[in-house]
Amino acid sequence: MEEEGKDTSPKCPYTITVRRNPPRKAKKTPSTNAPPSSKSTYFKPKDIRPYPIDDILKCDVSQAPTPVPVAPPENLESIRVFLRVRPIDIRKVSTKNSDVAAKGARSKLKGVSPKRDLKKTAIKKEVCLCVTDSQSVTLAPPADMQDTRRVKTELYDGFNHVFDSDSLQKDVYEKVMDPLVCDFIAGKSGMIAAMGPTGSGKTHTVFGSAREPGILPLALRKIFNSSGNNCSSELARSYYISIFEIYSERGKGEKIVDLSLDGTDLSSQQSTIKCQQVLVTNVAEAESLIARGMLKRTTAMTNSNTQSSRSQCIINIIATQKTFDGKVEIVLNGPVLSIVDLAGAERSQKTGNQGTRLLESNFINNTSMVFAQCLRSLLEHQKNPKKQLQKHFQNSLLTKYLRDYLEGKKRMTLILTVKPGEDDYVDTSHLLRQASPYMKIKFSTVEEPSTLAYPKRAVEKLPRIEQPKRRKLREPDASEIDEAKIDNSEHPVLKKERILKQLQQHEPLNVKKELHKISHSEKACCTELAGTKRREQILLNFSKALWNVLKQYKQKLEHSEDENQSLKENLNMERARCLELEKELGLLKLNDSHGTQLVVEDSALGSGAAEIYQEKCTIFKVEVSDECSPVKDLKVEDHQVVEDSPLGSVAAEIDDEKSTIFKVEVSDERSPVKDLKLEDHQVEVSDECSPVKDLKLEDHQVEVSVECSPVNDLKLEDHHQDVEDSPLGSGAAEIDQEKCTIFKVQNLEVEVSDERSPVKDLKLEDHQVNSAPTQSMNQEFKAFIGKENAGNDIENLKHVDIKDKSPNQDIAGAGLGLSVLLSSPHSKVLSVTALNEEAVSETLAHNITESEQECCSPLKSVNVQKPRRRLLPASSLLLKELNTLDLEVENEEPKGGRGGKKFTEERILSKGGVSLLRLLKSNVRS
Ligand SMILES: Nc1ncnc2c1ncn2[C@@H]1O[C@H](COP(=O)(O)OP(=O)(O)OP(=O)(O)O)[C@@H](O)[C@H]1O
């Protein structure tokens, strides 16, 4: 028959794609427990201490008494995947070929050769899936799809077993379910899930019928009537059974329906699924419970199945134990056998579902998809541990409930059901493609505590190999040993001896079997103990490394605190220094902006310099230095008085806080001050021999330049200037005010007296003279002019230029001396320049003539308060003498016109005349 079967197998198409999922040459996965290489090339920043993983995982672990293998292969098993091919649906075969099709289908799957039965060839075309051998199937696309979509025939291999359409329920149970049942009876949890497209026979495989009971009824029989089986315990037991379904009513969300006797609907909002667990003590009760639950299950008729399941159904068989008082209770973290009948995925095109059915289809398909995603993610994670295990389980209630299985922590078995018809090619192909990789999924044989009855999971996540087996020994029926009370910390050997002793006392006949169990328990305890010790060692190393790191950081902290302290001190010092510098800078700025300088240049016998700094009128400094013959007498009234010795130098500091009037008197008989500047103060310089040559007073500036014999005595008090020229010299006074907008000069008087050579150049600019012109002034001026004319003293003043057409001006000149009183309340610029004697005389003569004849000259309107004029007889005499000389004046004749403004500058200064005058003066002196 087998040969016939081989011969009658459908002829494979020309091209075959083999999907064996050959094991890849996986990259060497880094072992998490391998000792770290000292040649690691990962980046290490210079200043950052690397995480002390070396210290933590250093080889102290090997000192553990019982070394634990890193990943013992015996703790991992592949999940088992079975494939069951449902008999072809005879009703769907066309009426024309119905008989042939049915026979052909069966004969094909039975292995009947098509050559012997030509009629069956037609039926072969209706089948797309054929069983190649006990572990593989060949899926051939329909002819029309081959042409249009170029789909090739595929071979799916590697199943634990493939059940053809003739397979019996008992066969399926023996190969699929019985190992699970045996493990369950032995204390291991397990889960089997039937998955496949709608109508492919999942429910039939799980539940079956009265005539053909499925794997669940057969398992119950095995569990309760295990006396005849090899692997079962001879002890009669009772079990709790829970049966519920997860259903989505009209797409409103998932809900859990308890299918037990008096079960009620459970809200899907519950964080835990607490279904009623019915205690059953025999198989009849169990089957009855299951049958009633199935009657409650939500089913509906679809195009694909007359009684299609519309929900995911889960049945749990939970082990129990008897207490000392004879009560039965669930074994804490005991074994649970779960059977899951998933609703079949549906294609709306094929089923033609609408309305409620369509909503149910969506829910069913979505749950199937999430289930598949979980398994695929688990597979990828196991292939590449770096790839995180995705939490797809959160996307459906079913996968939440089965999380432990879908994360490979518990034993899982899959049975795929498919339909072999050509119409079902797409569904079958989809399922096979999706599920064939699942064969490589591994699960841990070391179980965690069950979470099915108590789905709230522990948070602790340890490597799978380190998960301790916390299974407790089940209570044997005949014995009264309460293993639950055994201390887990007890050493396995002692534990073994104690249990052995108890067993010998209570049940001598079962000693051998119990010893077997004890050895199993002992092994688990050893594993647990080793894992615990390794964890302890790792924690110890971790704490040591952490301690070292903390010590280092403490030292660094102390060091940094010291540095911080020193830096703070430095900072304070720098701040103090900065303040000092700022102070100095402020002083310098003030000096630059407001400081005044008093410079004294000595004549023949030495030189001197005086600097005056004034900051806000609080500090005033005068420095005078002269090596040869400095200022002998420097007086600062109301302040500091410095007297210099003939050959020494003088440095004086003067503070003036409140006084606004500052007076400096410098007197030196031999080498007087040549250049003196004093702002906002009063300077009085007197020198009889070599008087001040150049005197500048800013903001009340007075310039005096005398070439031969300069001003002997220059006084300016309260804005009062008094310049007296020496016989052979000339003087000029200039007053500038730049910043002050209002400058009042009252009673301004400039007096220049020189008997021999009066002031030649006198300038007074940018000042305002608030002096109301008075008629008396004019009269006095007239009188003065008249007097001077009478004395012929006016000849010395050659030129007077009044640059500003100020309304008020009064100029008076005398023969040998000149006294000028300026009063201009409205003018800002007033300049009086004496050019030469001739011009002055002419101007004065002109002014006098005009004033006398018309009385309407500019001088007419001059109102001068307190006019002060003074004629010096010595000067007049000198001018007389000069007039008698036959001097050739190179100056051009004045261009005339009224007022001094019509005279040009060229006529003011005549070098030849001046030289001549010098010669004359020297001759006169000599
Ligand atoms: N191996 C088989 N032998 C005989 N009949 C079968 C077999 N498998 C399935 N059937 C029949 O096919 C029909 C559909 O089967 P079943 O209800 O188990 O499909 P299903 O996969 O559970 O579908 P759904 O997902 O829609 O619930 C049933 O009438 C069942 O008796």
Automatic annotation (TrEMBL):
GO terms for molecular function: ATP binding; ATP hydrolysis activity; microtubule binding; microtubule motor activity. Keywords: ATP-binding, Coiled coil, Microtubule, Motor protein, Nucleotide-binding. SMART domains: KISc. Pfam families: Kinesin. Residues 78-441 form the Kinesin motor domain. Residues 1-47 are annotated as: Disordered. GO terms for cellular component: kinesin complex; microtubule; nucleus. SUPFAM superfamilies: P-loop containing nucleoside triphosphate hydrolases. Residues 29-41 have a biased composition (Polar residues). The keyword Lipid metabolism does not apply. ATP binds at residues 196-203. One of its GO terms (biological process) is microtubule-based movement. Residues 550-584 form a coiled coil. Belongs to the TRAFAC class myosin-kinesin ATPase superfamily. Kinesin family. This is Kinesin motor domain-containing protein. It comes from Papaver atlanticum.
